[in-house]
Amino acid sequence: MKTTFNALLNADSVEGISKIKKYDETLTGRNWEDFKRFIVESYPECADHFGTGAGLRLQRMDSDLAEAVMLRFARMGYACLPVHDSFIVHHDMRDVLEDTMKAVFRDMFGVESKVEFDMGDGEHIEPSEHP
Fold this sequence. Notes:
Layout: H1 2-10, H2 25-28, H3 32-42, H4 54-76, E1 81-83, E2 86-88, H5 94-109
Antiparallel strand pairs: 1-2
Helix pairs in contact: 1-4, 4-5
């Protein structure tokens, strides 16, 4: 379902989406065309975006946002490594990362964002003199 949903968001038209390689009618009980229609009808809040390439545009915006965060860190002389939808920075740079992420998001989209951190289970990190 996720693969088909993403294909619908990324495609230029709903009709033009060819059958997903591993699609198996026995799992859904529907042929390919019926399954596509089922997903579109199941997500009416997304229906206007299916077949418009919206998913690819959103992926590009996400990539541009991540690049802007990393470039700001590079200009400060610090490493900032992307991992999926997260960043790895020196633990003393956590507040800088949060501020940077919020600022870049605000600059790009004109609204405030929420940032969450996961330091790992049970980790205790002592501050250091030099990040």
